[in-house]
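So, is this right?
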Amino acid sequence: MATSLRNGRVSPWMAVLGGGLTAAVLDITYAFIFFGLRGVSAIRILQSIASGLLGKAAYQAGVAAAALGALLHVAIALVMAAVYVAASRALPFLNRRPWLWGPLYGIGCYLVMNYGVLLLRFGPRPVPPIEVLAGGVAIHMFGVGLPIALFAARAALSSRLSS
């Protein structure tokens, strides 16, 4: 089950780690660029993530809250990856078409986060402008769901090759 970079094999745990970290980095990079061009600092973006736990106090907690936001962001991405990798082990068809199922999973992640988790935490919010909505869905399709699905498919291939 161990992963070796030399033989190219990927374990399910490495798929969770690789897919989750890749998704976290791509997603937050997108947020930094998209919202940064609109005048929002990276610290403020990370504080907004931390506000899920800290509430409005996150915006007065400086870099500490930003660090917490970064950790929460990575943790959420790792959970998203773990869910997909577990599902792909139970439903092997997901591994045969990661270019289809990954983006669809990304849409599901977007919907769960924005219309489940954030709705429960912060209550109803106004519909975002179309560029925010389209960008959010796109990054979740191709920056979150797809890399997670590709890592899961690689782990499934490695598992079949080692059998």
Summary: Helices lie at 12-36, 42-54, 62-90, 93-96, 98-122, 130-162. The chain has one domain: 12-162.
